[in-house]
Amino acid sequence: MATLFEGFTLCGLVQTSSASDSAIQGIELDGDSDHAVVTDSTRAVTLYKVSDQKPLGSWTVKQGQLLTCPAVFNFQTKEYVVVSDNKVIRVWKEEDLNLDKAFKATVSADVWRVHSAPGGELVVLFQRGAVRLLDSLLSAPQQPIEGILSEKEVIRWSTNIVAEKQHFVLFTTEQRGEHFLYVQRLNPNTLQKYRLEREDSGASPLSFSASLRDKHINLLYLYPNGCVYQSVVAVRGPVGLEGVQALPRSLRLRLPVGEGELGAASAVALDEAHVAVVGMPHPSARTGKDFLCIWNTNFQTLQAEILRIVWCYLGKLFVPHGKALSVIPYECQKSSLASALGKLRHPGIAVSKSSVAIPSWNTLLHGDQPQGPTKIVDTRKSVLTVVHLQPLQTGPVEEVRREVEALVSRGDAQDLQLSVGRLACQLVARSQVETAFYAPGALARLVQTQCLCHSMCPDLLLLALEHKDYFLCQLCLQLFPDIPEVVTCACLKTFIGNEVLQTPYSDNLLVPHLKDLNAPQVILFLQYLQFIYLKYSQDVYTQTPVLRSPTMTQIIDWVCLLLDAHFTVLVMAPDAKGLLSNLQSFVKSQVKLFSELGKIEGSLQELHKMKPSKDISQYSIEVIELF
Amino acid sequence: MGEFKVHRVRFFDYMPTAIRAMAFNAHTERLALARMDGSVEIFNFTDHYFQEKVIPGKDSRSIESLCWVGGRLFSAGLNGEIAEYDLENLRPKYSLEAYGGPIWTIISNTQGTQLAIGCEDGTVKLFEVLEEHIQFERNLDRQKGRIISLSWHPSGTHIAAGMMDMIRVFDVPTGHAVQRLLVDRGFGGSKSRETVVWSVAFLSDHTVVSGDSAGKVQVWDGHTGTLVKTHLVTKWDVLALSVSKDESSVVAGTSEGTVIQFQFIAPTLHQQQDKEWVRTRTFKNHTHDVRALAEIETAIVSGGMDTHLVVRPLLEKFDEKSHASGLRKIHFPHVIANNINLSCAKKAGLLLFQFPGQLELWRLGDSDEHGKPGDRLPLKRKPEKLLLLKRKGEDHICCSALSSCGGWLAYSTVSSVRIYRLQTDNNNISITKVSKLPKALHSAHQLCFSSDSSKMFAASSQSSVLVIALTQSECKYVHTLKPKSGSRQPIHLMTTSGDGKWLAAANSDCEIHVYNLQKLKLHCIVPVYGSCPSAMGIHPTTNNMTVVHADQQLFEYSIVEKQYTDWSRKLQKQGLHNVWLDRDTPVTHVTFNSKNPNQVVLHDMHMFCIIDQMFIHPCPCHNGLIGFSGLFYNQMTLRSLSEQERPSHLHAFKICKTFQVSLLFLASLLDDQSLVVVERPLLAITSQLPAPVRQKKFAT
């Protein structure tokens, strides 16, 4: 789960003349993880202590001069480097007060960027594509600089990456609507040029971001239509291949764009699974584009949101927006479907979950545009097993049951899943049309194959509810992993069972639907929950895990949810009084228990710590290594 | 540098005994310290608190009090005897029955002409100090009840005596008691118990300060016999008092383990004339009774039941942070390293442990396995106690030795030397005492065997060394090696070379004599360095001698060329690193790696160090030079670095503190590139002590 923590303002910004331009040229890291070197768009470089929001030093060039590249920190010599007026390289230390008195060198060609990375030397990238190590450049500043790029080819974006003792400079260029990626390896120097695939609309990428993962450079880029693509370049790439290679890409994320296209937006990869995006409209369709969203690319879920972004270092996002530069710490945990979707089916319940075939997420990604995490559409267009559809369409209930039985016992697993889904849909559709037709036996048999899920045939459960077929309802609740909260609540309204409590749900989505229950229903449900809770707590030690019985945690969770949704109503209802006071005294005793436990927590933790201390015996032979 | 197998030995259950008394000689800056087992240790405070001498204990001797008269040391104890010590031969010179029952205390007057003792029978006895002896002079008026503590007025005319429930002041010329100061009893249940005045101090202005068993420190006017001030400092006993030389400060040690300082100062800034004794500071460096205290020029020295000697510097006496301004805790006698001998004959390591009352011979365990660093290897054979040898007689063992072949074992007390022949085949061990010993061999300060086990060397009086030839049948006196310097000090270190040609002996005068054993004469004297050698060893192949001194300086001396080696000169020129010099325990053992002649293995109480002469010396002057970072990293830091970073931080001093939770006694290389480390965790010692009277509990 990705979490954005509360952000804070690092410094104010001077508004620039054009609104689209940022007042910040660049933010770079210092030797200290808590420092940030901020270069504004005109003349000043400021060093901040991020946690204190305090400037530690500031350096400006004379009026008339202009900083043309963000200042960077040289991790080896502990110096700062900046370029002014495209050609003048300035080097200074933190204790230097005046930038004009600092070391200066004028080079013979325009500099695009100076790049720095911990563990690597400083690299200068010229506007015409040449790359030099800063040290060797400064030893002979006026050395001739070759031009790599062709006429009218301009650098759009650049970065550098240090990997496995290898140093890379990556930059993208644009030439007549075509986009290229250059990968320059240093020591030995090799240059590889890739052509990016053209987007159908002919649009240019809005932003790039590169990261290193598993010996591969991952390039992430965002197009105005909301597509986030990823391309992978091997660190040990095809050396010696001449010419321009085509760079294959894969779609990581399709962001909801709303009407029109994006003007300015930016995407940064946070880790394998998370991408932070700014400049996008929020999917909840509120107006305005000032949102920072973290998307989980594995499950295409929105994880957290606020405002705009540009730089990302060491768990912090630096976002200039409006008149301030904000710092937003974030955290990305290992993603799982559970954290992306909500509470899972309780692991203690031995439902043969593995056999429940859910259409693969991958087929989704490459299929139609996903509608949302909980709605699953089987889009596979493969050839189905030939099913004798005729009796199903017209035959009586008994004949349908026999046909289904025969089909289920005949089919092999792979095809079964597809045909069962299809069959169920047809039967449900027929029932909806012919009010007299309802085939509970056949449907139950289909559900029992465990090849069906709610998303495959969304109307099945509702149909069963309509016909008050509680057996089928229970069966569905037991076996479907993906029942939407609204349907769960609909079931609740008609009957209360073990099964409802065990369906997976997500708190936020369930509460609004719970509100649809009326007061007597809620009271009845609470009484039922209290009854099973008491029943359990009496024999909590002797209880053996029974199939289809909810756990204590599930009961408590449901009580909490119900109270959340209906507290005001319940307080007013006279017949809920006794129930509420019972629950209150129960909570009181729990709070007391936990406060007592809290008191001895420290001591218990100490016990925990003591454990790993090695058992010191009277004698041992150990191996040590000296350096 | 490589991997080593380490035998971690934690079954050496040596237990230091409690500190009972101490006396500081301000003139020579030596501290004499008596332990409960009757042993006396001398620390040289001018030489990094180096423990230069130990007088072994004796079963019947108990020491209650120590006293310096000039350079002479006297003790008195509950056995009723006064003893003077021979500090050159490390034994009592004589002892004298005082005929007053158990003696609680002994003091001398400032002139050094008289001694006074306080006896159980209520008498204060005066002794005249003569050139070579002391002689009973007279008794002061006999009192009812024992005399627990005494203090002599600096003028020599009066003596204050702490007794039960009272303090008496005696007029020395007449012998009459002139004042009687009654000391209150404690409150509540302790009201019925007599108050013991454990300690008194008589100041020049006739102020008497007393500390008693009711937890009070009281200030009295000695002229009038009136109580001036009472400080209740503890619920338990105030056991010891000590006055600073200028009489501006008094420290009191309590049963709680605290040391409380009182200073003679004006309580307000305006009335600088009206000074009084004010309680100022509390130091808590002990867990148990503080039985012995000494306030010296710049520090408070304390010791007691918890066996540690603590030197707590008074920081206001220092202008800047220095070596002397750090707190020192001396947990073990430094010479304890001499109590362990290792022999690695026939691939089986034998360890000899020396205790005051017995010797233990152990065989190390064995493992065939190999492992990667950090692994604990499965044992093929467990360690085994082969032999327990109890000493004969009352005197405690002062030194012992095991030959490198494992065939000979010897120990000495102040009165006799015993040599044993050991035979081990597989699981059987037999021990035979060598019956006839040469007459000259009656006691030894140090013992050692030659590497081929054909000779034994015994350090005798006046820094001389007896050479004894050993054969299967007999044991024969060969020669006495005598130093040219004529030093009378005892030898505290002795080592032989691997080829049997050289013997080096160091004495407390800081001299190191090297003898040629083939010609049986003095070969050379290593240039005398101002600090006492704390450990030395002769390299088995190069015959270079490595000497480490109490001030942590390190020298390598070529015996053959009679000069310091180039490496040693370079080291001295560049200077040792501060991290090395600032360590607070001396190096106690030097040994070598027979596989790699460039490596010297050293250890102190907290770490061991392999010095590899092929690596760069970690000196600040080498910063950034030839790829060296100039930082003095220890092994743990080096291990945490990445492999790319590490080479630039490697240096000659490979300091390993892996065993830092424990104390370390010995590191030695067996034949197969393995080290033996004997650890004695402090926790194991603390756990054997009785429960303290008061333990600090959280938020109390």
UniProtKB/TrEMBL annotation, chain A:
Its main location: nucleus. InterPro entries: NOL11 (IPR042859), Nol11_C (IPR048897), NOL11_N (IPR012584), WD40/YVTN_repeat-like_dom_sf (IPR015943). The keyword Transcription regulation applies. GO terms for cellular component: nucleolus. Residues 1-19 form the signal peptide. It is found in: Nucleus, Nucleolus. Residues 1-330 form the Nucleolar protein 11 N-terminal domain. One of its GO terms (biological process) is maturation of SSU-rRNA. Keywords: Activator, Nucleus, rRNA processing, Signal, Transcription, Transcription regulation. GO terms for molecular function: RNA binding. Residues 415-496, 498-627 form the Nucleolar protein 11 C-terminal domain. The keyword Nucleus applies. It comes from the Eukaryota. PANTHER family: NUCLEOLAR PROTEIN 11 (PTHR15633). This is Nucleolar protein 11. It comes from Oncorhynchus tshawytscha (Chinook salmon). The lineage of its organism: Eukaryota, Metazoa, Chordata, Craniata, Vertebrata.
From TrEMBL, chain B:
Pfam families: WD40. GO terms for biological process: maturation of SSU-rRNA from tricistronic rRNA transcript (SSU-rRNA, 5.8S rRNA, LSU-rRNA). GO terms for molecular function: RNA binding. It comes from the Eukaryota. One of its GO terms (cellular component) is t-UTP complex. This is Cirhin. It comes from Oncorhynchus tshawytscha (Chinook salmon).
